[in-house]
Every structure is written in structure tokens, then in C-alpha cells.
Predict the 3D structure of the following.
Amino acid sequence: MRTNRILLIITIFMTACNLFAAKNLSPTMVKIQTNHGDILVKLYDETPLHRDNFLKLAKQGFYDGVLFHRVIGEFMIQTGDPQSKDAKPDQMLGTGGPGYTVPAEIHYPAFFHKRGALAAARQGDEVNPDRASSGSQFYIVQGRTCSENELNHVEQSARVNQERGIFQQIAATHIEKIKALQLANDTAGLNNLRDSIYAETVQKVDANPMYKLSDEVRQAYKTLGGTPHLDGSYTVFGEVVSGLEVVEEISKVKTGRADRPVEDVKIIKVTVEE
């Protein structure tokens, strides 16, 4: 009798553990209901800060009634500005949020800007060097297919940007020496230091080439499409599972000043799929 009871307890415990594991393995799904149709998105567990923040805002009803305030065909559709609720037709939008930012969780090339990617908007590098995300604004990539030559150009541009960033970082460590050479009008010394910093920059870039597109990423951009020039600069934290046709439809609406749709494109409700 005692043995049977122990076996029963073990069975119940193992069943509960399996159910818990299965629940944790299931992706987090969120439905974005719009006046153009529903978009079902999957949130990535690998970007927990963005996932949890999005879920929190959705459950609070933060997104209910918010407009897609910026729509650019063959690029993306953007929303999440609380100031867009009941906004006047001529009102400029895009600066609103919940009053905080979310630390960047950029996992490129694991997550990239393929068609249907869900990503966080943010302020530019000049005022936001850490690339922290907006607390609420996000965009869904519509994009377009890319040719091999276009992807090569994206790689070249990305390498230049990587070199620029690393060069500036290294130069910052030599700031006192640079000032001294400038005060001494030592042009030859400045040129030698510049060449030395650039050589170190190239060495670092070659050792960690963040600009390189993998075969998988290239194939996705050539077949599905997307916006590869954004890769590595913004946090991609999910993707569209169904409703890409809705994204496509919204991307084609007529827009006016600042790419705002002439007729409101609105989120009716965002719900977490249990």
C-alpha cells in the first residue's frame, strides 16, 4: 500500500514537471488586432527584457487604440506611440513612450531583419550610443527581396561602420597623446599615430567581422526579403507567425507628412495567447 502511494506521488510529480517543461518550451505568442486584420507574432525567449516588457504593456492595454504612425512601403510599419491615441490628423507623432528605455538585446546574426521581423525602435546612435530600445515603440519589417550585389554593398557599408566605431574607440584611448601632437603641430606624428590606430582597427575587424552575411541570412534576404542595412543596430525580439498579408496591406496605405497614414491604421487590442 505504501509503495503504491509513493509510486502515485512520483507519477504526479513527474507529470507536473513535464507539463511545466512543455509550457516553458512553448513560444510566447501575441495577437495584434488591427483595423486591417490580425497579426500573430512570436516573441523570442532569447530577448527576455523585450519579451517581458512587451507582455507587460500588452496586458496593461497600453497598445489598445495606438496608431501605426509611420508606414514606409518596402521597408516597415511602426507603432507604439501612446500620443497617437485620438491624435489629430496633422499631429506629428513618434516621440511618445512609457517614460523608460529597454537595454539593447541585439543577437545578430541569430535574429535579423527578415520579412516579418518584430523589432524595437530607438533613438539614433548620436544620442543613444548604447542602442537602448524605446520602451514601447516597435516596427514590423515588410522589406523587399535583395540581389547579390545589393547584399555585397550592405556588407561593405557595414564594414565601414564597424571600422569607424572601433577606430573611434581606440583613438579615445590616445586622446592625451593626440592633443599633445596637435599642440606641437607635429603633423608627421599625428599621421603615424593615425596609421597605427587604423592598422589596429583592421586587425580587430578582421578578427571579429560583424558585417559578414552568412549563407543562411543571404538566402533569406534573396527569397523572403527584408531590410539588411538595419542588422546589428536594432533589437529584433520576435517575428510574425501569421498575418504577413496584413502587414503587406498596411505597408501600401496612402501616407502623408512624416510617413503617417492619411487614414488611421489602428491597433484595436493586443492579447497574449495562452
